[in-house]
Amino acid sequence: MTADNLTLGANLSAAEWELLKDCPEYGEAEQRLLDGLSFWLEGLVQTTIAISGIIFNIFSSLILASKDMRNSFNLLLIALGCFDCFYLFGSILESFRKSFHLATSVHTLLFPYVLFPGQMISMTASVLMTVAIAMERYVAVHYPLDYNQSMNDEHATLRRVLKYVVPVSLFSVVVNLPKFFEAEIQWIDDPRTNETIPALKVSDLRINVHYVTYYNHYFRLLFLGIIPFGLLVFFNTKIYQDIQVRRKRRCPRPPSSNSNSGDKDQPATSKRDACQVQRRNVNANRRRYEDNLAVIFMGIVIFFLVSHFPRIFLGLHEVFVSTQARLCGEHGKRSFSLWVHVFAYVSHLLLVLNSSVNSLIYCILSSRFRLQVVHTLNSVGSRFGFKKDPTQRSAMVAANNNGVANSLGVINNGLKEAISLNGLKSSNGMTTVGGKTIDIVSPEGSPLMETQTTQV
Q: For this UniProt entry, which segments traverse the membrane (predicted)?
């Protein structure tokens, strides 16, 4: 330990000395490992996935916005895809800056006031929007009658979407307002070009002990980790239970009785009764469709929980070791163990992967979405001279005419009975404190600050 460190350590308590003895240590081989993971994992692999994810999200949003697919759930998925695209775009820029060292002066100038807080806002919005969609699915499945009545209004879909998107967007901005003040721009002389260039500098706020403890540790861990995680588990569990109970209550419909009794005095089913039968069957098929959407979203939520678990785990770990990490950093030692840095790389990659595969999960689980994708590809192909397959369009039309039961493979028997009886038609990094380096590890996918050499 140097003389400066001994001077700083003169005022340490016995407990702090014990913590200082356990500071992580690793040499050049471990540092080369971290540099390699930074380039390959956070750089090349993460950028490839992010670019693919942006393409998938844009394409799926176009599919979900089509006339045949437009409903409140799909519009909420479009909003989620938009937030994910913003986060993926920020991760690509961050990979170019940190892993590939390709940041330009414009990139550096935009980072503290636009790119960094913007990426944090988009990640927060993605988390909260996932919770909001889970709540929307829970309402649709747990209170089907109220949900069906509210959807009868032609303006209900737009109001329902705005009811979730607007609060999520506003709360995401408000929560991340401090992020606009965590980094600053300082101008330094470049000895190679003899020019003054911008460089990033961690602000005093970012290294304030109370700010780091109460905002970055407790507040963000609680409101962006533990609470969303618990809500998603709760909503998913209740949705699964409601679907299982509803499926057990469904019984096969008895065959319709033919009027072969010869009793001409007994009238056939009245038009009013037929309309009630039709309405009941339409509502039943709508409930089946809502159940199917809930099952699809359960798959999205499960992957979300798996992808965000390392972020939450690292946040909890950082809370418990924050005192030791601060002491080790102030005395020029490593703040976090090697596995924490490796796990942070994995966490960042999983967050990017989660924002990239929502549309893929939807495509795998939804037959209606797959049919619409095939129809869209056929339509695009026909414009370039490729022969259009009419059977795919017929399948899509048949799926839509079945109400919304095509996703579950359910045939609207009651509706057919009503039509046959009455002829009705259906209408359907590192920073410095006093010149001493401190690691800043971001478990939630935010950029790591570079090593700073400026006295604070």
A: 43-65, 72-93, 113-140, 161-181, 218-240, 293-313, 342-365
Calculate mean pLDDT across residues 240-250: 80
Closest CA to 286 of 162, 375, 415: 415
What is this structure's pTM?
Answer: 0.77
CA quadruple 268, 271, 277, 278: dihedral sign: positive
Q: Give me the mean pLDDT over the 192-213 stretch.
A: 89
CB neighbours of residue 22 within 10 Å: 13
440: which 2 tokens? Answer: 């800043």
Q: What distance in Å separates the CA atoms of residue 70 and residue 67, rounded to the nearest whole number?
A: 5
Query: How many CA atoms, within 13 angstroms, populate the side-chain half-sphere of residue 53?
Result: 30
CA dist 276 → 246, 266, 286, 311 (Å): 21, 20, 15, 51
233: left (phi over 0), alpha (psi -120 to 50) or beta: alpha
Quick check: helix, strand or coil at residue 253? coil
pLDDT at 159 over 90: no
d(CA 416, CA 424): 9
Q: What domains appear along the chain, each with residue ranges and CATH number?
A: 31-249+270-439 (1.20.1070.10)
Q: What region, left, alpha or beta, does residue 332 occupy, with left being phi > 0 and alpha being psi -120 to 50 degrees?
A: left
- Give the pLDDT of residue 171: 96
In DSSP terms, which residues pair with 438 in a beta bridge? 431
Per 3-state DSSP, the chain is made up of helix, strand and coil in percentages (nearest 5) of: 70, 5, 25
435: alpha, beta or left? (left if phi > 0; alpha if psi -120 to 50): left
Gap between the Cα atoms of 365 and 295, Å rounded: 8
Does position 56 have pLDDT exceeding 80, yes or no?
Answer: yes
